[in-house]
Design goal:
By secondary structure, the chain is an alpha/beta fold. It has one domain: 3-Layer(aba) Sandwich (Rossmann fold), CATH 3.40.50.1110. Helices cover 43% and strands 10% of the residues. Strands 2-1-3-4-5 form a five-stranded parallel β-sheet, with helices on both faces. Helix 4 runs parallel beside helix 6. The longest helix has 18 residues.
Length: 239
């Protein structure tokens, strides 16, 4: 165990430094706790909501910055899977004491970004993050996995059916636990399970137009979540 500080980029950090830093993260900081450590220390007021997720959450701030008005924090990390998010959930969500958390995760679990996994492992990680939030008085929004017919970084994979399956479970789990389900899939998906034309440049990550479609879904879900009591244990036993 070490309290060694996180690496800090110099003012002249170049692509070579960034590549080396990514290598350091892969070998020394699997959940990437360092990614938001400094930003978390600078949070002085209770956030309204923290967005936990992968690149789809991370890029939301980049491509739709107006959505992240005061009180909304983005803690997405590109490429991450649910086990990585679960490890950093205490530091990047619970410790900040937000009123609500928005969890959107599963694309990279399906892709196998951190190795072999299973549907049940993904479910358990979602359950664990939701339980941690509720136990700490944080309202929970579960965002559906956005549609995709293929992944450029996983040639040959056809994820559309799996995405629909996992979203079906998310919707049921949210209803069971009295959490809020944000159905981005319904707003973004074409009939074949791909992203609707014009909403993404790669079929996976929403572009500015895609996030514009997601915004009202998120706003409605957050408004609903902040009305739901969060104290106490889950209302029903796990399946």
């Amino acid at each position: 165990m070490s309290d060694a500080p996180c690496p800090v980029p110099s003012a002249k950090a170049d692509d070579g430094w960034q590549k080396a830093y990514r290598g350091w993260v892969a070998g020394n900081d699997w959940p990437w706790l360092c990614r938001y450590k400094a930003a978390n220390l600078s949070v002085n007021a209770r956030p309204d909501v923290v967005f936990m997720g992968d690149s789809i959450s991370e890029l939301w701030l980049v491509r739709d910055p107006a959505f992240f008005r005061a009180g909304r924090l983005d803690r997405g990390i590109s490429g991450q899977t649910t086990p990585q998010m679960l490890v950093r959930f205490m530091a990047d969500v619970v410790a900040l004491k937000p009123k609500a958390v928005h969890i959107m995760a599963g694309t990279n679990d399906i892709a196998g970004n951190t190795g072999p996994t299973s549907v049940e492992a993904w479910r358990n990680n979602i359950r664990a993050m939701a339980d941690l939030a509720r136990a700490n008085g944080i309202a929970v929004v579960l965002g559906s996995i956005p549609p995709a017919a293929s992944f450029a970084w996983r040639p040959g994979m056809q994820p559309a059916a799996r995405i629909a399956e996992l979203n079906g479970w998310l919707k049921g789990f949210a209803a069971e636990r009295r959490l809020v389900y944000a159905d981005y899939y319904a707003a973004l998906a074409a009939p074949d399970g791909s992203m609707k034309p014009g909403l993404s440049s790669d079929g996976v990550h929403p572009n500015a137009a895609g996030y514009a479609v997601m915004d009202p879904v998120a706003e409605a879900a957050l408004a609903e979540a902040l009305k739901v009591p969060t104290a106490g244990p889950p209302s029903k036993p796990r399946r």
